[in-house]
C-alpha cells in the first residue's frame, strides 16, 4: 500500500502542472510558462471576486512580489464563473499579478480548496510547504515569515 501516497503525490504534481501551465499576466495577456519560475518560491493564491478577504489579500501579495522580485513568484487563480466579474475585481485592486482563470474550478478541486482565499506556498524545489486558508491582516507577519524562511533556503 506504500504506492498509494506516491501515486497521489505524482497525480497532484501533474494536476498542478496542468492547472498552472496557462498562466496569464492579465485578462488580456498571452500565457506565461511556469518554467520561468523554476528555482523560485511560488505563492499560488486561489481567489474569487465576491470574497472580501481576497480583496484585502491583493495589496499584501503585490507587496510580496515587490519585496522579492528575484526570489518569489506570486500567481493567482481566479475561480469566478464569469470572467467579467474577475476582470472588474482586478481593476479595482489594481493588480499586476499573473492570473489563471479557472471557471470550472478544476485546480481548486485538485488542491482541495474550500475556503477563499487559499494560498499554497511552494519552495524552490516545487514542494508545497505551507497552506494558508483565508487571509487575515493580523497574520501577515506569519505569512511573511513563511516566505522569508523559504527564500533563505536557496
Question: What's the gist of this structure?
Answer:
The protein has 154 residues and is an alpha/beta fold.
Walk me through the structure.
With 154 residues, the chain is of the alpha/beta class. It has helices at residues 3-20, 52-67, 83-93, 106-110, 140-152, and strands spanning 23-24, 31-32, 41-47, 72-78, 99-101, 118-122, 128-133. It has a five-stranded mixed sheet, with helices on one face. The chain has a two-stranded antiparallel ribbon with strand order 1-2. Strand 1 (23-24) and strand 2 form a beta hairpin. The protein is globular and about 40 Å long. It starts with a helix and ends with a helix. The model is unreliable at 1-33 (pLDDT under 50).
Radius of gyration: 15 Å
Shape, principal axes of CA atoms: globular
Instruction: Indicate the structural class.
Output: alpha/beta
Mean of all residue-level pLDDT scores: 82
> What is the rounded distance between the termini?
34 Å
Spans of at least 5 consecutive residues with low confidence: 1-33
Order of helices and strands: HEEEHEHEHEEH
**Biggest β-sheet, characterized?**
5 strands, mixed
- Main sheet: which strands, in order across? 5-4-3-6-7
* Count of individual helical segments: 5
**What portion of residues belong to β-strands?**
15-25%
Helix content: 40-55%
Would you count the extended β strands for me? 7
Described by its quaternary structure, the protein is single chain
Amino acid at each position: 500500500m506504500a504506492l498509494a501516497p506516491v501515486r497521489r503525490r505524482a497525480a497532484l504534481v501533474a494536476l498542478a502542472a496542468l492547472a498552472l501551465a496557462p498562466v496569464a499576466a492579465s485578462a488580456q495577456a498571452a500565457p506565461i510558462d511556469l518554467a520561468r519560475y523554476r528555482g523560485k518560491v511560488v505563492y499560488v493564491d486561489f481567489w474569487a471576486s465576491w470574497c472580501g478577504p481576497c480583496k484585502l489579500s491583493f495589496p499584501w501579495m503585490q507587496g510580496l512580489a515587490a519585496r522579492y522580485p528575484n526570489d518569489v513568484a506570486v500567481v493567482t487563480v481566479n475561480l469566478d464563473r464569469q470572467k467579467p466579474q474577475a476582470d472588474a475585481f482586478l481593476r479595482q485592486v489594481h493588480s499586476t499579478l499573473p492570473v489563471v482563470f479557472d471557471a470550472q474550478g478544476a485546480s481548486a478541486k485538485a488542491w482541495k480548496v474550500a475556503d477563499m482565499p487559499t494560498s499554497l506556498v511552494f519552495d524552490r524545489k516545487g514542494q508545497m510547504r505551507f497552506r494558508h486558508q483565508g487571509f487575515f491582516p493580523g497574520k501577515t507577519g506569519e505569512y511573511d515569515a513563511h516566505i522569508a524562511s523559504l527564500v533563505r533556503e536557496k
